[in-house]
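[stage:ingest] chain + small molecule (MRU)
[stage:ingest] validated
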Amino acid sequence: MIVDGKHFRSLWWNETRGVLEIIDQTWLPYDFRTIQVVTLQDFADAIREMKVRGAPLIGATAAYGVARAMESDPSDANLERTWNFLEATRPTAINLKWALNRCRDALLPLPESDRAASALRLAHLIADEDVQINKKVGQHGLEIILKIAQRKNNGDPVRILTHCNAGWLATVDWGTATSPIYQAHDMGLNLHVWVDETRPRNQGAITAWELGKHGVPHTYIVDNAGGHLMQHGMVDLVITGTDRTTRCGDVCNKIGTYLKALAAKDNDVPFYVALPSSTIDWTVRNGLMEIPIEERSDAEISNIQGISAAGKVDAVTVTPEGTPVGNPAFDVTPSRLVTGLITERGLCDASETGLLSLFPEFSDTVG
Ligand code: MRU
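[stage:predict] done
[stage:export] tokens:
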């Protein structure tokens, strides 16, 4: 993605220093800061504190974390310790486990002397694949946007609502929900994006920052506005990302996604979910019962971060002192509310049959 004329991925390997560099997303949209992730503890902190965030990006970061751990101690015991240490950072996005499993499966059969170099090559591969996969997700999602644009037939913008940040910053590049949006914009299609604020972490501000840098017209709205806009015919399409998709097509994504899906259903607005297949948990059938929902800190709810007129990034408290708060970070949208899934292999119904029609190699995975 281009930021002020320079191409960026959301993470990259600094060959000279032998470290991973990331965009520290806790400073966005106020400041664009890149930092180095050096120790294994740095990797865990970056994921847990959401310096990197978004399911695919968490997975790619963890793969580099394994590579770092293998440099100092490539033993089986350390591989297992590293797997457990990184897996414990965030519970909901399955890409974390997917990437760690992929690393473990690839490294365990190798002699210890080969593991560090192989782990780094694998981390590069996972990152590069993520870029290609999300580009393909975008190509397939573009078909949906083009159909809506054709129906409009008068050049009016296709109005797309998105929740959270499923943009290039949530992946290595392109994003999932935003990939079709960027590709439609790049081919000259008239678009307008409704960007949900996504309290409490306000990932919508990151989406607005991304879209702004790319020149995509958009409007930032509070989370509760989506239903109203849909009732008034102001949304043609909803596209979100997902942190874990069950083999039956339930979708676990940022808290509030479910309410958007309900509003979309009630107003006949198509509700699509864009995902790389690394986000499918083939072992899970019932999203509501089986997916662990991350509970984050009280401070994320009782405080709100922003930038003052003097340019200082600070947090203020919005609740009365001592107010008990709850902070479930994700919710599950049942497949019946999802119009379709957009994957790197094409579009499908949000169902086991739909997913297996694109990924038949998983038909025997026990779910
Ligand atoms: O808590 P976050 O910011 O990591 O949550 C991110 C999301 O919920 C995204 O929508 C999801 O990871 C899909 S992004 C490609």
